## 1
Amino acid sequence: MKTTPEDAAARRAVPPVICYPTETLPQPDLPLYRAALVGAEVVATHVAPPREACAFEVPAGHFFRIVSSEGPQVGDLNLWNAVDLSERFYSGKTRALHGTHVTTGERLWSSFPALRPMATIVEDDLHWYGIDDFGGSVHDVIGTRCDPYTGNLLAGTQYHHCCHSNLIRALSESRGLTVEEAERHVHDVLNVFMCTGFTRDTGQYFMKASPVRPGDALTFFAEIDLLGALSACPGGDCSAEHSSDTAACHPLNVEVLKPEEGALGDWRSPPVNGYDRSHGTGGR
Ligand SMILES: [Zn+2]
């Protein structure tokens, strides 16, 4: 085994470079979206019951709002292109572009080859939280989703109401897919209202009680036609444990809002990514 090099301290002292500077990232017209939100009316309401999920459709140019209704509760969100489920939320690239947690003005990006904004966060009632002394913050794109496989791996359990399973059932019912078909489409989530981070000493993923309270909401603008699914996580506020029926759980509401006619001016749904997809083959 190699010993620590003499210049170890110097190597560690090299300052970091931001992987993806976002100066050239296409920016949303937030003032336009916010003005449109003011006159928007709720056209549909869905409820994710505790330890269950709901599916919902949001046409491009509408808004959707996830609301804490009865008590502190974390939600696991999946998003798909409503007309092509192979285009779906890409948590890893969203993290690379915006950081570990997202808030107002940041966007949820879709998978390759589309790589375009699916939704833009227009209002975040937890924007005040910032980053706490533990390195924790809210609305992360660092977790995956609680699932029965990891529970089985770590504890030998057969638990059926993890977010992964809840999202599968919601998608299966909404699109008439078998459980096996639906499972292929479920992906890493946006952890709505969840407070998470990595421990400074061991780098481990941690969670702590969500600061969300009834009435708090996270509001998105749909950049493309969306199918969404939201699971009210069995972890409740995620202050203690998940993947069981132990935690106190509450429902989450999803409101779909339609802006007034003409409120978006000449806004257009973003096109798919401009890369030519030849991957060095010359187009063969
Ligand atoms: Zn969960």
Note: The first strand starts at residue 41 and ends at 48.
## 2
Amino acid sequence: MSRFGYRDKGDFQALHEIVAAAEANLPIEVWDYLIGGADTETTVKRNRRALDSVAFRPRVLNDVEDIDLSGELFGHRLRLPVFLAPIGSMQDFIPEGAEASARAAERFGTMMMLSSSSSPGLEAVAAATPDHPKIFQIYVRGDEAFVNDHIRRAIDAGYKAFCFTVDLDYYGRRERDLAKRHKTTARSTAKDEHYQSRFSWDDLKRYRERYDIPMILKGIATAEDAALACEHGIDAVYVSNHGGRQLDHGRGSLDVLPEVVDAVGGRARVLMDGGIYRGTDVIKAIAPAPQPCRRPIPTASARRGRTVSSAPSNCWRRKSVSVSVFSGCDLSRN
Ligand SMILES: Cc1cc2nc3c(=O)[nH]c(=O)nc-3n(C[C@H](O)[C@H](O)[C@H](O)COP(=O)(O)O)c2cc1C
């Protein structure tokens, strides 16, 4: 029996069981790093508020016996229109680090984005899951040669797309971590962070012109930047506020989505994250634009140091099916 009163047998049925198990199994400073946001955590709350303020208008008698919930990203079929967002310092949650997320994503039938701040590195994760399509995400922590090197290595290792995260010019003021004087393993060894602060549209243009690999810009939160991303030939505009871990008092991601979808006008894919925990959230995010992604993987992975992320994923699938059925909404027709 866990200290939360659940019998921890690994056959999770509800999200709160997974969350409770993860909290019980992680040191408090790692747990707080996982769930915390910047400053007053207003942006974190707004991500949820934006989702919670949307209600369904259920239609009936729609023949929902057989519905298709699958999605597609860069030519790859996803079991749900969901992928795994990049998570740094995965090694702090689970000994296998990002390899565990890649294996879980492969088992479930979705894609994962590997963070440049997680171990093991991009070649090791690629070697561990050679048949599984993955995306590499970078923080710019070096000069042009550094970025070129990472793009070439990602291409050589078979990554299907390359993602620049652009909302971390400076590291957010995460007060839970500050108060405990806690630094993740990646953060304690981070250097050359100023390269990210000076990274610009002109730099992006050069990489875009030089490489064919599909490129994603993660951390877009306005129509203006979404339009600029399209003008720079970006393949996917990724609406995100870093889970509220960077700019405090930002807008909830779902509130940002409509203006970005309008600005993009079909010129690029639109991805989003921020507060997505359940099938209901996925459906809400899909209504204006496709492909939300989610965070709970380290929460799930943290349980007894083993990855159990297929458990939440299956909860998710069941929930998505029920929402889809109850709302009379067949995703394949939307
Ligand atoms: C523990 C943790 C580590 C993260 N590390 C990265 C990272 O290395 N690169 C990145 O682009 N985003 C990172 N993010 C942000 C996520 O990719 C994603 O944008 C965010 O978690 C989505 O919001 P949500 O947490 O409400 O689902 C991290 C988020 C968390 C919670």
Note: Confidence is low (pLDDT under 50) at residues 1-7, 288-316, 321-334.
## 3
Amino acid sequence: MIWKIAERKRGSDKSRLTGKGTRLLAILGTTLAATVGVTAVASAAPAGCASGYACFWEDHSYVTDGSPYNEVRFYMYYTDFNYLNYTTNKDAHDNVSSLYNNGNSQSIYVYKNENFGGQAFGLSKTVGDNDLSNSSGGAPGGFNDSIDSGCFTGWC
Ligand SMILES: [Ca+2]
Ligand SMILES: [Ca+2]
Ligand SMILES: [Ca+2]
């Protein structure tokens, strides 16, 4: 139910700095912090995910085609994973199956649609999910091979 709060229409970037958006983030942050606190345990960053970044892999277990270094990542935010390429030059649209927030202080939010649209979930710093195809780990179920944008708190 809380994920519905995060649903936003594409092209609503204009509202990202409005009071409404700020309140939405504040509500989300509170709700997500409570949720993540009981369902996810911080873990060591996967190989290949540099400090300060949110990292994404095409396959489960923090790898793409067997390599932990074949990832996509962002710092601050990224609005369209169609234009975010793995080192093998394939884009990350609708294929991420594991992710990790290696940020230094902020939570990340990831969305099913481009431009922070559609269903979303949050991950606290140093929390990941090594398999989006199940509901265990830091992410809820239902997000495998669907993510298309993401941001650190305050950049959505
Ligand atoms: Ca995948
Ligand atoms: Ca999972
Ligand atoms: Ca998508």
Note: The first helix runs from residue 2 to 5.
